[in-house]
Amino acid sequence: MKKESEIELLKKGWSKEDIKKAEDIISSRALHDKSKSMAYSNRILFWTVLFVMIIGNALVALVLIPVLLTINKFGADIFVVVIGFAIGLLFNFLVWDIEEHLTKAHHLIASTAIPILAVINLYAIVRIVNALNDVFKITSLRENPLTISALYVIAFLLPYLWTLFVKKKIKAYQ
Fold it and tell me: Are both 137 and 99 inside the same structural domain?
């Protein structure tokens, strides 16, 4: 059991024996899963979450089309950062919620694949917005695709990196 959890239980009046009993019950749970269905389910959950986050990032990129066409550069940058941070919080919650069953490879895949795909999505969308802007002359402002993509990915990764390094939520990987 984590030291923080043990301290919290002691503060709530639990005895050391009760904490040990609860710890034994929790650790024996793994022995009852003889079919390994929990590990299999968590792998499916991880890949589903990864897929949903990829689709979510693509939808966010599409939502940015009217935003980038209508508001000024500073407003667009702020909007991209706020959306990136919000989606990053969701990603962070989903990844760390199934953390017990993830390996180092899973974290590496999640922390690299999604930002890379987000950069590609946003780069393409900003190029499309700039092309639409050239055709329809909506505004004289042109956005830099790399700047918008970088702002989004940095804001997207901030919650994950904060959890990883500040909260030190790194487990001993197998």
Answer: yes
